[in-house]
Amino acid sequence: MNGTDLNQFSPNSFMTRAQMVQILYNAGLYSESSRNTKSSFQDVPNNHWALTAIETMRSERIVNGFQDGTFRLNEPITRAQMAVVLQNVYQKQNR
């Protein structure tokens, strides 16, 4: 897990949905890294720093976007969303 800047960790900040997905990706919670260079979500630019992580976790069915086709990168992840993500990780590991 990296900090939010070169010499800063920001332990009291909220975690965004993009940061959460990058952490899961860095932890290796996937079978194969996505090679998709185009975003599946209308609000995720193709050059976003977390695109590979987002696309990989989406293809692994760990995370989903919203019904309106967005991922909402910079929104804080809610407790309910994190609970679903952890359940998806658990189920994937026990298949």
Question: Notable features of this structure?
Answer:
globular, S-layer homology domain-containing protein
Rounded Rg: 13 Å
Distance N to C terminus: 26 Å
Count of DSSP-assigned helices:
3
* Secondary-structure element pattern, one letter each: HHH
* Helix vs. strand class: mainly alpha
Structural domain tally: 1
How would you describe this structure to a colleague?
- The chain is an all-alpha fold and 95 residues long.
- It has one domain (17-93).
- The protein contains 3 helices and no strands.
- The model has no long low-confidence stretch (mean pLDDT 93).
In short:
It contains three helices and no strands.
Per-chain topology:
Elements: H1 17-26, H2 51-59, H3 79-93
